[in-house]
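Q: Got a minute? One more chain.
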Amino acid sequence: MPSTTKQRVLVADDERAIAEGLGAILGDEGYQITIAPDGEKALEELAAGSYGVALIDLKMPKIDGLALMNELQARNIATECIIITGQATIDSAVQAMREGAYDYIEKPLNQEKLNRVKALIPKALEKYAIGQKNRELATRIENLTHYGELTGESEEMRAVYQIIDAVAPSNASVLILGESGTGKELVARAVHNKSDRAKGPFFALNCAALPKDILENELFGHEKGAFTGSINEKAGAFEMASGGTIFLDEVAEMPTDIQVKLLRALETRQVRRLGGKKEISVDIRIVAATNKDLQKALADGELREDLYYRLAVVELYLPPLRERVSDVQLLANEFLARFARQNGKQLRGFEDGAWAWIHSYTWPGNVRELKNAVERAVIMARGEIVTAQDIMPRHLRAAATASANAATAAATSNGAGTTPATSNGQRGGAKKAAAKSAKGKSAKSAKR
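A: Always. Here it is, folded:
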């Protein structure tokens, strides 16, 4: 039998002989069968229970097959539907396929077509099971605010969680793209912790922070006497992380000749220590990250194209904080609680002015900058509420003050630039001059 568990299948057909015949045949195949004599009864059954597959006759009383399918879609009932149709309704069957039916079978149901039904049902059940798993995952992630060490409830972060959940059980290499401070290492740890390698080591290396010779040594290790001062042998990250995960941060900063050796290690799953002759087999998964413009790095030769394809089996984009602004308040409150606890302070939250600044600032340093700002605010706070002065960095407070002073000066300058007394004096002098001029003209006219 193809099914070891009693998977539920509904047969909906108003021709009793066809419905009972199909039911008996499929029951012998190991399925739990329910028979519905019309579309209305079929809808009641499908709405009340979880059926992986329904065999639905197009022409049924009360609710026909197409109307039944439309109603299932409207109610988000995910049962896979196989349409049973006569020759006269073949166009309707094709239409049902366009609207989401899994497949259709033409009457009369001879042995050949019954065999086809038997072959179709396991495939339809598999599709239903995959869809069910994805729906359960989406529902679970929809309610998440935390995923491992990651925090966020925005749609952007839930998309990240879904990718991690999908890729973690595999051994596929993952390339994480994102700006500095977005939490790429936290994503790498989540991939590791959700995988079958979780009990193995997690080894992180920052390729931009280490000089070339040290980076190569850290990756591959060395044998005794490989270079001056190497008095002992040393295992590299590939050996120490065997059975676990290596995280290569800022991988595009890695010198290209080391990229060649890294590519070979990924392809062969073998490494050779510096100064060594023996190939050492390793079992590792690589998760890499970069904050560079990927296309530019490839065009400029900073990242080898063949290495990129090896690293980016799955590519994961981690959005900057400005692209997930709905997470800012959640993160700020979490950091506040964490640092208040660490510093032994009783803080109730942020004042309105502090929130206004937090939400208006673009956070170019992303989550790392927000975290540092809140930690500093907790340390600087003198009351139970964090103020705008506490949370704003000193250079930004100075810039805000300078901007305010400049605005005040501009407003003063735009107010005509003179005092009322001076202005009145000027107007008075002008009147006297005009009167004197008029008097002189009158005198001259009299003499003429």
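A: The longest helix spans residues 111-142.
Q: Perfect, thanks.
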